[in-house]
Design a protein that fits this description.
The protein is α/β, with parallel strands linked by helices. The chain folds into 2 domains: 258 residues, P-loop containing nucleotide triphosphate hydrolases (Rossmann fold); 88 residues, CobW-like, C-terminal domain (Hypothetical Protein Yjia, Chain: A,domain 2). It is built from 11 helices and 12 strands. Strands 3-2-4-1-5-6-7 form a 7-stranded parallel sheet, with helices on both faces. Strand 2, helix 2 and strand 3 form a beta-alpha-beta unit. Helix 6 packs across helix 7 and helix 10 runs antiparallel to helix 11. The chain is globular, with a radius of gyration of 20 Å. The N and C termini lie far apart (60 Å). 42% of the residues are buried. Bound molecules: guanosine-5'-triphosphate. Guanosine-5'-triphosphate (GTP) binds next to helix 1, strand 9 and strand 10. The site of guanosine-5'-triphosphate has 22 residues, from helix 1, strand 9 and strand 10. This is Cobalamin biosynthesis protein CobW. InterPro entries: CobW (IPR012824), CobW-likC_sf (IPR036627), CobW-like_C (IPR011629), CobW/HypB/UreG_nucleotide-bd (IPR003495), P-loop_NTPase (IPR027417), Zinc-reg_GTPase_activator (IPR051316). Keywords: Chaperone, Hydrolase, Nucleotide-binding. It comes from Neptuniibacter pectenicola.
Length: 357
């Protein structure tokens, strides 16, 4: 037992797999617990932190999780946590260690392109090891995407590209990323269960069973709804075994130096516009999703005469649109982050400008 160490849950998983949705549910359920949250985004906008922070429409402040400090959410934007462990992650962890008497649990959401291993290894560093332990690494898997063979398919594509282009020699495939995220898992969470039929669930299970030991449990969830007991208090002390976890990317890793990694081959940028017509924006966005290799797009739209902020979330070809909260004191603007391969900001900007009012 690690009675006097702060348990830390590391939530990993590919872009758009459902990590933020899960975290937001945990925070809603964990009323009264003092939880510090570290959110790492690959893109330059802190959209996840913003969504986690914003009070949902039915939010009852009295019930809200007791936050740590000002809002309890620490953002590590604009970089991948596994490559900035020393510069970004450790200073935040040291701040949390200083305030350990006020913290019951730490939750970390890694970027969708991050490898969990370097992060978990950091829990063996002096100054962290004495005070914190990794309660569990939770790997979130996008059920429909895995069922559709998206990761396997992309691996084949990358292989073909490799043959055509020497410069992509070290481009780790998405399948490798999935393998590496799964290899560190103490618990696998398959998200978007509501979108899976029985056959698809079987295909997902077959992929997982081939990659993780039988002792690692898998749970299927919809809309982030999972029992807290399933997610927290696993007491896995993952940092003690992390050296034994084999990763595709281990041979690239040089201690203290930036290593070759999936995100080196991804493009990411932010598009900012004024007020837009919601229907036109969605049409333009859907066209872009089918035309280009966009893995993830997310952000907010400002609609004329609407006090509410509209959230847009694209994962692969699927687009979710909803209102989350009034703009309040924020200046309404339309702003979306894009992550993909071979995509150009100017092309996307021009396409989205057709929605301007
Ligand atoms: N239908 C359905 N949609 C879901 C579920 N979980 C998440 N989503 C949607 O999937 C999209 C991505 O979810 P997020 O929770 O933002 O995913 P993420 O892993 O945090 O994404 P990144 O941080 O960008 O990597 C959003 O539009 C969610 O509403 C689910 O169980 N069912």
């Amino acid at each position: 037992m690690q009675l006097n160490k702060i348990p830390t849950t590391v939530v990993t998983g590919f872009l758009g797999s459902g990590k933020t949705t899960l975290l937001s549910n945990v925070l809603k359920q964990a009323a009264g617990k003092r939880i510090a949250v570290i959110v790492n985004e690959f893109g330059e906008l802190d959209i996840d932190a913003d969504l986690l922070r914003s009070c949902p429409l039915d939010c009852d402040d009295e019930q809200a999780t007791t936050s740590v400090g000002e809002n309890g959410i620490y953002e590590l934007a604009n970089g991948c946590i596994c490559c900035t462990v020393e510069e970004e992650f450790l200073p935040v962890m040291k701040q949390l260690v200083e305030r350990r008497d006020d913290i019951d649990h730490i939750l970390i959401e890694t970027s969708g392109l991050a490898l969990p291993k370097p992060l978990v290894q950091a829990f063996n560093w002096p100054g962290i090891k004495e005070y914190c332990t990794v309660d569990a690494v939770i790997t979130v898997i996008d059920g429909p995407a895995v069922a559709a063979g998206r990761f396997a398919h992309d691996a084949a594509q990358v292989q073909a590209q490799r043959l055509a282009d020497e410069s992509l020699d070290h481009d780790p495939s998405l399948q490798e990323l999935l393998d590496d995220q799964l290899s560190a898992a103490d618990l696998v969470v398959v998200s978007k269960n509501d979108l899976l039929d029985a056959g698809e669930r079987e295909r997902v299970q077959a992929v997982i069973s081939a990659k993780v030991p039988r002792a690692v449990k898998t749970t299927y969830i919809s809309h982030g709804e999972a029992e807290l007991d399933t997610l927290m208090g696993l007491d896995a002390a993952a940092e003690e075994r992390i050296h034994d976890v084999h990763n595709h990317h281990d041979h690239h890793h040089v201690h203290g130096e930036h290593h070759d990694h999936a995100h080196d081959h991804f493009d990411s940028f932010v598009i900012t516009l004024g007020e837009v017509d919601s229907d036109k924006l969605q049409v333009a966005l859907k066209n872009l999703l089918s035309e280009f290799n966009i893995f993830r797009a997310k952000g907010f739209a400002a609609l004329p005469g609407k006090p509410m902020r509209q959230v847009l979330q694209a994962v692969g070809k699927r687009l979710d649109v909803y209102f989350d909260r009034p703009w309040g004191t924020d200046q309404p603007k339309t702003q979306l982050v894009f992550i993909g391969k071979g995509i150009e900001a100017s092309v996307i900007q021009t396409a989205l400008e057709t929605a301007l009012v």
